[in-house]
């Protein structure tokens, strides 16, 4: 099962999650393979300093109070402390965040088949901009944040994953026509930006809390962070530890 599901990628401040699980069941009766890729393709492993780069852009606006600068305590590179089961799924994930003072926010999520996170299925990379808002009224230790998602890329590491993901995109084309032009190929980094934005829009509202060298994001399960909604609690199942 790959991780294109909304409560997962939203939970990392982005988007892609539980709709994948539902789509898998309908995919068996949906049209087989999508047309050859119209999406831009580039080879290589996605990363914070890969071809996706640290994209510029204008960030969204938080729901409440005045926009503030990115706190110094947030700036740096963060990784999940442990291999974690994806909510509602049967696969596992390791994530890495990169937060810059200018609001650049990159997320790399690697999905695995095993609880030791050794058998890689795929890698999803999202480039976004982020603005910090008011102190959260729901979680006093947290701050409201809003993300504007600029670019999405997907890299499959197995043929089974590529086939399943192409079925998902084919089944999603009615809602987001650019999805029909995507053809995931093992080992090729695929730009899926237009498809993803058509499915889930480009804005996410969440929370961030930092205690020492540990960072928590909002619990976005159940699509809780799709704007104009916002998380009202922290996801304590996937804490991040500072690595840089």
Explain the overall architecture:
The protein is α+β, with helices and mostly antiparallel strands and 244 residues long. The chain is built from 4 helices and 11 strands, in the order ααβββββββαβαβββ. Strands 2-4-5-6-7-9-10-11 form an 8-stranded antiparallel β-barrel. Helix 2 packs across helix 3. It is globular.
Layout of helices and strands, plus pairs?
Layout: H1 6-11, H2 19-27, E1 41-43, E2 76-80, E3 84-85, E4 92-99, E5 104-112, E6 120-135, E7 143-156, H3 159-172, E8 188-191, H4 193-200, E9 203-211, E10 214-217, E11 240-242
Antiparallel strand pairs: 1-8, 2-4, 2-11, 3-4, 4-5, 5-6, 6-7, 7-8, 7-9, 9-10, 10-11
Distance between the termini: 31 Å
Question: Which range does the strand content fall in?
Answer: 25-35%
Mean pLDDT across all amino acids: 76
- DSSP helical segment count: 4
Quantity of strands, as a count: 11
Q: Using the alpha-carbon principal axes, give the shape.
A: globular
The secondary-structure class comes to alpha+beta
How would you classify the quaternary structure?
single chain
Helix content: 10-25%
The stretches of 5 or more residues where confidence is low (pLDDT under 50) are 6-67
Provide tags for this entry.
244 residues; alpha+beta; 8-stranded antiparallel barrel; 32% strand; globular
In short:
With 244 residues, the protein is of the alpha+beta class.
